């Protein structure tokens, strides 16, 4: 769910590169993760962040703290392989635990274990996308899906998978509907993940918290996201309304969905995707952008050195790719966050050229679209967001009085991108805000 701000890391973390690669300049450190007031779970910033993300769903049946910390202890900084191995081990063990529970006698225990196994298989997959031919990209995913499906069936009201057709019938949209169980029409949140996350994760991050408040949930995935990328071989598209509007159509066929109380929520890059949907689809009463993004392409090019920027602007694709491939993408010594971000960009946008990936990213902006948004928009802004600094404020400024800008603070444990680590607090803030928006709108 985070995304690239590769060059920020590259350039502040590797002073020695100045010598090796004379045309890359080193930028000043101004936002060092070492200023984070939080205890660090790994000497590798990126592993710290991803571990925090997994721990953060523990309150919502997504993980258990002790076993994640045991897995964490086997991970070597900079070694994506050690991360994958450690989580595969934990996932495999948890899968066996889940299978070993008689679910007819102990449905809750079996469900808990299946959900955890699914989370750990997603984690095992997370750092593998640098090699598209790695068979584990699919085998781990099949196992996460099977584990998650086993858990879905054991819910008090089972989550229901549906496959919708995109606008223009260009691709299929996998979705899961979680009913609040209410017989009255209820508010509904339609949610998507971002650059690197699955709809299954969304259930734990926001879904369960919303269901606790009697709000219906529909999660879905579009192009570039885990299942669509794998099964339909389609990379990200900027015109996300093609994926989301059919989900809204579907919601309107459900009898306990109140048509006047629909929100769209997007996580990380989803902050752009969801806001964009509201520009095109006015059936949406509220948008929840965690966090706000106004111009994604700019977050990439902002971190290019003047030399690389010149190559980029001049359309020097081969030179640009050569430098990035040689010194960064294929360099196992650069910070994990940077290498992973480039790998994930190529995989999820489905291109082998970083130049092309940067070019494709330019279209992910809301210029000229914020005026078309009619809904109220919650714009999350993490104080120490190292991926998208300034983007939430830019989005809120363009939206004007439609926006509620909310800063999640580092010293409250919520300053990381998407307030990872503080999901209970995050849900408190956004779900109470959504309730307030509906009460105002419906005059209650
Ligand atoms: C790889 O990264 C390390 C650490 O940033 C750097 O010292 C080294 O010069 C890089 N190698 C190349 C070929 O750029
Ligand atoms: C914003 O996206 C549009 C395509 O939707 C593109 O034509 C434009 O160049 C982008 N703007 C910037 C500043 O990248």
TrEMBL record:
Keywords: Hydrolase, Signal
Lineage: superkingdom: Eukaryota
Endpoints of the signal sequence: 1-18
Molecular function as annotated in GO: hydrolase activity
Alphabetized InterPro entries for the sequence: AB_hydrolase_fold (IPR029058), FrsA-like (IPR010520), FrsA_esterase (IPR050261)
Gene3D superfamilies: acylaminoacyl peptidase, alpha/beta hydrolase
Protein name: 2,6-dihydropseudooxynicotine hydrolase
Species annotation: Linnemannia exigua
Highest classification ranks of the organism: Eukaryota, Fungi, Fungi incertae sedis, Mucoromycota, Mortierellomycotina
């Amino acid at each position: 769910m985070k995304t690239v701000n590769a060059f920020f890391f590259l350039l502040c973390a590797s002073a020695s590169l100045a010598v090796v690669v004379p045309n890359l300049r080193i930028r000043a450190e101004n936002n060092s993760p070492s200023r984070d007031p939080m205890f660090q779970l790994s000497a590798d910033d990126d592993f710290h962040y991803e571990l925090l993300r997994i721990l953060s769903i523990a309150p919502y049946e997504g993980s258990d703290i002790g076993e994640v910390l045991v897995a964490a202890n086997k991970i070597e900084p900079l070694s994506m392989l050690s991360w994958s191995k450690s989580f595969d081990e934990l996932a495999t063990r948890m899968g066996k635990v889940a299978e070993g529970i008689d679910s007819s006698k102990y449905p809750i225990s079996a469900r808990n274990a299946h959900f955890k196994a699914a989370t750990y298989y997603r984690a095992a997959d997370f750092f593998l996308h640098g090699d598209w031919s790695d068979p584990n990209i699919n085998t781990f995913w099949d196992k996460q899906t099977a584990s998650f499906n086993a858990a879905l069936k054991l819910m008090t009201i089972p989550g229901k998978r549906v496959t919708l057709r995109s606008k223009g019938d260009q691709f299929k949209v996998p979705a899961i509907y979680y009913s609040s169980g209410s017989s009255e029409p209820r508010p509904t949140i339609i949610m998507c993940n971002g650059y690197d996350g699955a709809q299954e994760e969304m259930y734990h991050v926001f879904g369960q918290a919303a269901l606790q408040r009697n709000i219906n949930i529909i999660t879905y995935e579009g192009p570039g996201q885990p299942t669509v990328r794998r099964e339909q071989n389609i990379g990200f598209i900027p015109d996300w309304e093609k994926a989301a509007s059919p989900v809204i159509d579907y919601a309107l066929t459900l009898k306990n969905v109140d048509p006047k109380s629909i929100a769209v929520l997007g996580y990380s890059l989803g902050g752009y995707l969801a806001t964009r949907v509201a520009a095109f689809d006015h059936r949406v009463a509220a948008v929840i952008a965690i966090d706000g993004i106004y111009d994604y392409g700019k977050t990439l090019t902002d971190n290019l050195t003047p030399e690389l920027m010149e190559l980029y602007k001049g359309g020097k694709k081969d030179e640009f790719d050569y430098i990035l491939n040689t010194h960064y993408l294929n360099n196992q010594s650069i910070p994990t966050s940077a290498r992973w971000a480039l790998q994930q960009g190529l995989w999820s946008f489905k291109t082998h050229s970083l130049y092309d990936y940067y070019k494709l990213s330019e279209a992910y902006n809301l210029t000229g679209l914020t005026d078309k948004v009619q809904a109220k928009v919650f714009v999350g802004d993490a104080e120490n967001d190292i991926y998208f600094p300034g983007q939430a404020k830019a989005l809120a400024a363009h939206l004007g009085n439609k926006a509620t800008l909310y800063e999640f603070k580092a010293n409250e444990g919520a300053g990381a991108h998407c307030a990872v680590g503080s999901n209970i607090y995050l849900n408190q803030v956004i779900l109470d805000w959504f309730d307030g928006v509906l009460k105002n709108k419906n005059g209650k």
